[in-house]
């Protein structure tokens, strides 16, 4: 029996990057998957079909806009309507904006907080009620090394990710006497579309190559001087959902090449 067989997993922001890797690994571990995220509809449908065929599990896509609390809640309600329950919730959706606090646009602050932090509250609110009825569940919040330490020019992102770590702890404590756990995964630099945008912006600002910008970005924070693998993050997520992870709750797991050890 596969470790997540007969489970239903909702993974937000799963059309690319870390979220897609987690959705793929959970599907191959036997879970029915509900995907969510932005992107070209035709490409998303090809990804959904390919995953369903390779993992031989049902894979659904619900295009909720997680910047809106009502849609984040509706995502979970629709998932329950389609798959009958939600056993695993992975709050992964995120955006980034880089600027100093005086120059940080108000609307960008609101958007980062809404998607990176508030959406996790809204999805958890509905999913936890369903998990509590059935007495089992796993919530995994994808935080960041920036949920534990700060960097300049990332006020909204750092605030949101610190908030995710706090939300993780409260969720864990409120469900500590049940078979529902909640943990955060805190990656360092991962080669995702979100990080690629930062690299390209740095390259343009400094008139250097993308390769040089990549080395600068990773090297100045991450002692390993290499990207964290999305697939390794996905393996950790599956472990936290397993029986072996049933006593792990309220924890923040770093996978950051030594970033936060400094």
Number of helices: 8
Mean pLDDT over the residues? 97
CATH topology of the largest domain: Rossmann fold
What gap, in angstroms, lies between the N and C termini? 41 Å
Using the coordinates above, name the CATH class of the largest domain.
Answer: Alpha Beta
Biggest β-sheet description:
7 strands, parallel
CATH superfamily of the largest domain: NAD(P)-binding Rossmann-like Domain
| Number of separate domains | 2
Q: Which properties best describe this structure?
A:
262 residues; alpha/beta; Rossmann fold; 2 domains; 7-stranded parallel β-sheet; 8 helices; 7 strands; 13% strand; globular
Compact summary:
This protein is α/β, with parallel strands linked by helices and 262 residues long. It has helices at residues 17-28, 41-55, 69-83, 106-134, 155-174, 193-206, 210-219, 230-241, and strands at residues 8-11, 32-35, 59-61, 88-91, 137-142, 180-187, 252-255. The protein is globular.
What does this structure look like?
The protein contains 8 helices and 7 strands; from the N terminus they run βαβαβαβαβαβαααβ. The protein has 262 residues and is an alpha/beta fold. It has 2 domains: 8-188 and 229-256, NAD(P)-binding Rossmann-like Domain (Rossmann fold); 189-227, no CATH class. A 7-stranded parallel sheet has the order 3-2-1-4-5-6-7, sandwiched between helices. The radius of gyration is 18 Å and the shape is globular.
């Amino acid at each position: 029996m596969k470790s997540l067989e007969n489970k239903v997993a909702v993974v937000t922001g799963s059309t690319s990057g870390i979220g897609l890797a987690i959705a793929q690994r959970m599907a191959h571990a036997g879970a029915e998957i509900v995907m969510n995220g932005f992107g070209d509809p035709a490409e998303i449908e090809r990804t959904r079909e390919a995953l369903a065929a390779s993992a031989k599990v049902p894979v659904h896509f619900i295009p909720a806009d997680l910047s809106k609390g009502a849609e984040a809640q509706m995502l979970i309600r629709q998932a329950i309507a389609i798959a009958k329950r939600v056993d695993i919730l992975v709050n992964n959706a995120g955006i980034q904006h880089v600027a100093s606090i005086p120059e940080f646009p108000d609307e960008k602050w609101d958007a980062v907080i809404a998607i990176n932090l508030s959406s996790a509250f809204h999805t958890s609110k509905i999913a936890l009620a369903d998990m509590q009825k059935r007495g089992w569940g796993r919530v995994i919040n994808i935080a960041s090394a920036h949920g534990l330490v700060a960097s300049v020019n990332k006020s909204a992102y750092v605030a949101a990710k610190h908030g995710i770590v706090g939300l993780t702890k409260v969720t864990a404590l409120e469900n500590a006497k049940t078979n529902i756990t909640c943990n955060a995964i805190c990656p360092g630099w991962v080669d995702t579309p979100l990080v690629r945008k930062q690299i390209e912006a740095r390259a343009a600002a400094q008139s250097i190559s993308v390769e040089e910008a990549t080395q600068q970005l990773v090297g100045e924070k991450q002692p390993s001087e290499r990207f964290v693998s999305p697939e390794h993050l996905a393996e950790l997520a599956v472990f936290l959902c397993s029986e072996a992870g049933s006593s792990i709750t309220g924890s923040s797991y770093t996978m950051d090449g030594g970033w936060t050890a400094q």
